Amino acid sequence: MDYADYRRYDAVGLAELVARREVTPHELLDVALARLEAVEPTLNAVVRRLDEQARRRAGEPLEGPFAGVPFLVKDLLQDIAGLPTGSGSRSLATLPAARNAVVVDRWLGAGLVVFGKTNTPEFGTKGITEPEANGPTRNPWNPAHTPGGSSGGSAAAVAAGVVPAAGANDGGGSIRIPAACCGLVGLKPGRGLVPSGPAVDEDRHGAVSNGVVTRTVRDAAVMLDVLAGADPNGPYLAAVPQESYASAASVPPRALRIGFATDSPIGTGVDPEAVAAVEDAAALLDGLGHVVEPAATGIDERRLSTDWLTMWFAWLAADVRQARRSTGCAPDAFEPDTRFLAALGDSVRPSDYLASLRRWNGYTQQLGAFHERYDLLLTPTLAYPPARVGELATPPALQRAARLIVTARLGRAARWAGLMDRIVDENLARTPYTQLANITGRPAISVPLHWTAAGLPLGVQFLGPLGSEGLLLSLAGQLEQARPWAHREPPLLPAR
């Protein structure tokens, strides 16, 4: 099999070839490794190679829906026993994981052949993938631009054809953002459907979900069938529908009532390309028989963003402290931005943190009221096309303020001074639509319906009510049939 043949199939299709003995797992792995060698000097998507382990596994008897298919896992929250989970940080680069993550065990049980771990920003804190520890990952559609984050390495590898699917996770948009940047399908499952264990039972109060980025809806659905379901040692008994997600994805949905919005929910700007992406999607949906109209959730998403950041910074402070305890590393093992944000997290009073957390329930109630009127909410996934690599580096003035806050322990004073508002604008202006699904625990999916005039992907997002993963996949499958995208392949232009 050559690369052109390999690229024509999704993961389900490759597994079918293996099952029919038309190709061997070794042959698939050879093509995947050759493709990685060809694109990696440009993309920098994979931070840890597992070639020899993968070759040994490819020679073993493999079973499951993806038996023999090459695969990559994200180097964050997707532990492989005996190997470091670097999390994009120098601090954790040599600390081996004690056990496989539950999702890794489920992928291995499905027959996948894991041959590497993908790049991520430090502790997954950014919507770009430019960690100091590993260097930036670049977008195959134009390497001058970001593939998004924090699952940017996985998205770049899938878009470049290294693998048809790769591991990802999402605590504020980190599946959907890179999917939108790279022309992929990115489903964030709802809270508790996919286990987080065993290292954490419920990461960030369940705001984080593990999943994948894929080229096809079919792969996204079968992957969810593999991953969904309770972990006996976890905190939830997940309600998995009797019908498989693969079956749901193969059948068009009933006529849906869909509300759409294009304004930034935090009051910042929106690029005309993002507006055009939603308007075009709305016209396509109308042509498919759905009722589509402008709508608003009524949620104060500016405050929701502040509450999300409050949680994220406090957890980041705990992550930094845990890394220092585990490794004995010095403070300079962490990036300056991480130290700054962790200092803000350390400044949060317990009572303020709990008050912020209690507001999550209000947001969930309001979104529930919205879904009494509309089946789904349609928005841009991103407010702007993918940024250029380096464009979103912390501005010098904010860097100077951050150094002062960290050295003088002025975190709480900085919060009182209104710095959080500036951080919302600096960090979330390009991605203001994605945190709502994480706070409320609802499923959401980004689908690649739009490419900009400059040739960059720019996905649109659908957010559904509790337990609507099957509905989201059904609609995504219908859209994929109406306007196919999996055949589109990036040119891998040189950076410019």
UniProtKB/TrEMBL annotation:
Instruction: Please give the name of this protein.
Output: amidase
- Could you tell me which Pfam families the record lists for this protein? Amidase
What is the similarity comment for this entry? Belongs to the amidase family.
Quote the InterPro entries the UniProt record gives: Amidase, Amidase_CS, Amidase_dom, AS_sf
**Enzyme Commission number(s) of this protein:** 3.5.1.4
| Residue numbers spanned by region Disordered | 123-155
Q: What Gene Ontology molecular-function terms does this entry list?
A: amidase activity
